[in-house]
Write a structure and sequence with these properties.
By secondary structure, the protein is α+β, with helices and mostly antiparallel strands. The chain has two domains: 154 residues, Uridine Diphospho-n-acetylenolpyruvylglucosamine Reductase, domain 3; 105 residues, CO dehydrogenase flavoprotein, C-terminal domain (Enolase-like, domain 1). 34% of the residues lie in helices and 25% in strands. The protein contains ten helices and twelve strands. The strands form three sheets. The protein has a five-stranded antiparallel sheet with strand order 4-5-8-6-7. Helix 8 runs antiparallel to helix 9 and helix 9 packs across helix 10. The radius of gyration is 19 Å and the shape is globular. Bound molecules: flavin-adenine dinucleotide.
Length: 267
Amino acid sequence: MRQFFKPLTVEEAVKMKKDNPGALYLGGGCWINNGGRDGRGESLISLEALKLKACEEKDGTYALGAGLTFQELADWKDCCPPLKEALMFMTSRNLRNQATLGGDLAVGPEKSCLLPLLLALNAELETGEGQSMALEEYFKQYPKEGQGPLILNVRFSPEKGRAGVRQIRKSAGGLVVLSAAVWLDGSPEAPKAARVFVSGTAEGIQRLKEAEEALSSGGSFSEEDLEKAVARTVNMEGDLKGSKEYKSYVCGVAVCDCVRSCREALK
Ligand SMILES: Cc1cc2nc3c(=O)[nH]c(=O)nc-3n(C[C@H](O)[C@H](O)[C@H](O)COP(=O)(O)OP(=O)(O)OC[C@H]3O[C@@H](n4cnc5c(N)ncnc54)[C@H](O)[C@@H]3O)c2cc1C
């Protein structure tokens, strides 16, 4: 590392990044210090002094500071159950004490365990440039790690809907095969809206529109039909975590598990 910046304000941080385009924002450093820099990040811009730790739930709308660690969020008394569940997918407490919300989102679709849930919850980001943007849009515009603007906080409102999450690993504490998240709104039997996201696919993260339509069409559907629809449309690739067929099948099972959790919570 050649340079280490310690801005005291958001404006300073944004200016330092503009003046040093190759620099990386430093959250908890969990990824950056693990060699995840790919040769980049000769300059680091510490976010520590910005204290992006505000944490609020008001009338069902959550506003979470990007500097909150996984453990701080999981310990927060108002943390919503699916978020807490997704935070605990990071099984090591040491890592949870280090990794931040902003770092997890910025690190990108392949590595983040919170992304599917926050996408299913239609989350928005507030950036250091004062912009508000949908999380889905952030990834369309900045698909590669560390290229996006400074994330200040994440906001979402589950409205009346409920979310469910599921992660499949190769073995307990082993490699993550996929993470799935579903958000449903309406009655448990006939939801009127649905959002379904899965990470670990060939595209990194995928929105499963066909499953969303099946869930929100008002007609009855069996779990077997849903499992098959997911397995047919999810774009998996075989690798050391499993064959394409296995991953597609287990994705269908994970999505059905999420749907069951949502329906329980909607009752
Ligand atoms: C051993 C190991 C295990 C891991 N296990 C998991 C896991 O189980 N689940 C999981 O989801 N992830 C996992 N990760 C991936 C990753 O480290 C984490 O997602 C973590 O949350 C990164 O957060 P951080 O604050 O430490 O990020 P950093 O390492 O500080 O930064 C990561 C990237 O995010 C950028 N960044 C940081 N904060 C911001 C911000 N506020 N705005 C814009 N850009 C920012 C940095 O510039 C950098 O490009 C693991 C990583 C390692 C090394």
